[in-house]
Each structure stands twice: as structure tokens, then as C-alpha cells.
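dumping these here so i dont lose them again. two proteins, back to back, each one seq then C-alpha cells. dont judge the mess
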Amino acid sequence: MPEPTANSIPSWFGFLLIVRDDAGFTRDEIVRYLEESGIQTRMLFAGNLIRQPCFDEMRKTGQGYRVVGDLENTDLLMRRAFWLGVYPGITEEMAWFMVNKIKQFIKHGV
């Protein structure tokens, strides 16, 4: 679990989850389930930035940016990561609701 930096009082805005390759389900499947259960999620912005629409023209010419490495991890985040929203007003009951919904999904699948 994340720990705050010494001498800080953070206000966490989200908890990032990454669905493993061997999970038996996709990010989109669990996100759909959570959203249908009333739990809001958000995608990670932006993962591999050069795959974003603002780079369409630059990708055609191959100019205006440079790439270092294969960007494997940024692609992984685009495909498999999502945020669960958190904020100081979430009650323990609300947090357990999210935890139990995730456990239920993992146990019973889609």
C-alpha cells in the first residue's frame, strides 16, 4: 500500500490498479463490472503518449518527437491500468464495498 512521504499530508485522488496478463480477465471487463456496480473508474492518462491522437500527424512523418526504447511499459499501462477514485470523504463502508466487488468479480468472473 502507498505510504505518504515523511512530513506530508497527501490527499490521495486515486488508487492505480494494473490487470496482470494471467488474470483471466481484461481491464475492460473489470472496469465495466465496477462501473455497473456504481464504482467509478478512470483510465490512466495517457500511457504511451505517442499513441494519442495529437501525435497522428507526427507519426505520419516521423518528425517532431523522438522515442527512446521500445515503450513496452507505457503500452502495458495503456492496455491494463485503471484508477479507482478515492478521496477523504470515502467511508470505511464505501471502501469495503469496492474491495468486496473486486473480490466478487475475481472469484466469479464476468
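---- next one ----
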Amino acid sequence: MRQRVLTVYVTLLVAACLGLALPLCGSIAARGTSDMLLDRINDTARFAGLAEPSVLTGAAGTLSGELTAYDQLYGIPVVIVDRDGRVVAASREGATLATLDPAQDSGGELPEAVRTALAGNRMGSDTVVYPWQDGPLIVAEPIGRSGEVVGAAVTASPTGALRRATLAQWCVAWAAVAALMVAGIAAAGPLTRWVLRPIDDLDEATRAVSGGSLGTRVRTAAGPAELRRLGESFNQMADTIASMLESQRTFVAYAGHQVRNPLAALRLRVDSLSRHLTPAGAPEHRLALDEVDRLSRICDSLLTLARTEDAEHSVVWEDVAEVVEERVVSWAPIAERAGAVLVREGEEGVRVRCVEGTLDQALDALIDNALKFGGPGVRITVRTHRVPGGPDGPGHVDVHVVDDGPGLPAAQLDQAARPFWRDGHDGVGGSGLGLSIVVTLLELQGADLSLRPAEPHGIDARIRLPL
């Protein structure tokens, strides 16, 4: 938009300057020509009054001396002609109408100004001499006797001085216009910034809000009324979004916190039932305890999710291989009872700096999904792989949770991380929040989750952690 405003501004400035300069130059040329023309008309009219007897008698007499003196004084040739265009008297010997303006080839015809005068009319004032014209200014006055035109007095004034004066004034005018244009173009940048300042403020606020700074607001105390209304609408929208997110976080945190205490009490009571069970009921008792532990982990994930908008997070160094080993050991009994095989592979001694508790909760969600949807006999491999850094960055660590279950089509893999998405498995519980929570947790430390098909079948869930 800044470029458009600058383009419109500069275009209007140039058009206004040209619209001022061109008429001004025309007025300067017309004014100079008018002054010269008025002076020559007076001189020519005087000669027309003196030349009447000479035209009637056909003898120049003393008129030639008057014309010669005038020509010598001002350098302006004068010719007196009769009604047929024949020269009666001239200021220069051998002067004719053709010699007054050699540049004009009239083909033997009388000049237009002379024809006008012989017709009894005076020369109009619409003649303008421009700097690029090099001919003289021809002025003709009719010579009359008792209302009858008997001849004409003609002067041919050189226009060199007039053209130079006009050109000099034009240069001054164009210099002033150029200075005005330069000043206007120099002011274009600050003026455009001033005009677009409310829009720039709105753009900065929008970027800040989209980046997570929900407390950013637009200043609405100044600026055009339309942009003030737009800023107020933006602030109201930001307030609504912040209020909704705060309500959502409060609800999630409240729900997770309130459920933890009953779950802890429930686990103690279920655990205390072990001494009252028969050996046949022991497996079911262990399954109940596992489910209670799983619910506890879900509550922890809810609380962590509710804190993802906090300004400060507890960031610690963690050994990726140790975290993977702990989660594999924790899930091994559940995998065994489900008839699945859970193994760990990969490198040792790889440490990353991440938000405390996010990696193990992400692995819990991925392993749980693999067990839940992989089917009986599924094999789950948790593999750690370090990718060295290069010119583009310090490198990263990939943690793969790969199963050989039925998998999902590629189109559904792209949607699996959406909140509340379900793939339609019959008889399998779940809210569709597990993977979306994993994505949110990983984003806290700049990590990401991607789902790809495994070979020959299954799902390869990859957690990429920056080093």
C-alpha cells in the first residue's frame, strides 16, 4: 500500500507542477509578444499616417528619410506598399515584402498580415512568438483616404531579443517548478509514513497478536475516523479472543486439577483391594491400576496444556535415550498384556534442552495410540536418531515411534493431529485430543511432530527436537 500511495502522490505532484508550468510559460511568451506587438503597432500606425500622400502620388519624397532613420535607430525595416502590393517607399534600398521575412516562402503572394491590412483590417493580438521560432514579427497597418484603403505600412521586427528574454524567463519558471517537485518528492516519504502510521500500527498489532502477544492493542486516540473505528474493532476482537482463551485455559486447568485428587484416592483404594483378591482376579486388578495411571497421565497433560500460554516455562536438559528407556519400561507391561512387542533402538547420550515433562508425555501419547490402534501382535519400535548440524543449523534429534499396524491413508495422516479428529475405529475409545496435545507440547520448545506411512505398513510418528 505504501508503494501505491507514493505512486499516486508523485503522479499528482508531477501533474500539478506540469499543469502550473505549461500555462505559465505560455503566459510569459504571450505577454512578451503583446508588449512588443503593441509598440510596433503604434510605430506602424504613425508611418501609415505619414505615408498617405506618398502612396497617392507614387513618390516617396521625404518619407524615405523617416523610414531610413527609424531603421538605423531600431534596426527594424519598414516598407510602404500601395493597394496592389507595389513598394512605394522602403527604409532599405531594394527592400521588398519578400526580403522582410526570407524564411517565409509565400510563392509570390503577399504575406497574410499585409493582405489583412489591405483588406482594411488591423492585425489581431493573438500572435505569440515562442523561443523556437526564428522569423521576424510582421506588423501591417492599412493606409486609408476617406474610408478607402490605398496601401499599407509594414514593419518587420527582429524577435531574437524577445525569444532570448522569453527563454530566460522560462528557465526561471522551470527551475522553480523543478525545485517544487524535488521538495514535494523529498516530502513524499515522511508524508506517506504519516498517512499510513495508523495502518502500520494496526499491522504491528496484528503480527504481535498472531505471534501470541494477546495483550497488544492498537492506539485509537489519533488518525482518520475510519481507521480509528477499525482500530477499535480490532481491539474488541483481540479482547474477545483473549477472554475466550483465558476461559478455555481456566476450564482445562480446573478440570485437570479437580480430577487429580479423586484419581489419587481411587488408585489408593484400588491398590488396597489387592489383598482381598483371588489369584484369578490379579490380572484384572493390574489392568484397573494401569487405567488409573493412564488417567493420571492424561490429567498431567491437561495441566501442561493449560500452561502453554504462560510467559515462563521450566526448561531443563534431558537425555533423550534415558527418557525413551523410561517410557518403554513403563509401557512394557501394558504392551505385554495387549500382546504387542515394544522395543527401543538408537543412539545413546544425546541431550536436548526442552520444557520439562513434554517429551515423556509426547511419547506416552504416541505409544498409547500405537497400542490402541495397532491391533493384536503389533510391534512398536522407539528409535532415536541424531542428525548432525551443518551450515543451516546446529542439527536435531529424531525420535521415531514406528508400528507395523494397519496404518492410515496419507490424507488422514495429515488430519490426525487436529483436535477431536477420529478415524472411525469401532469399539476404540478416545476423544481425538491426544496428538493435538502432543503437537502443542512440542511447540513449546520449537519441536514438531510429523506422521508418515511406515514400510511395509503402519505409521511412523517422528518427533524432531532441535539441538
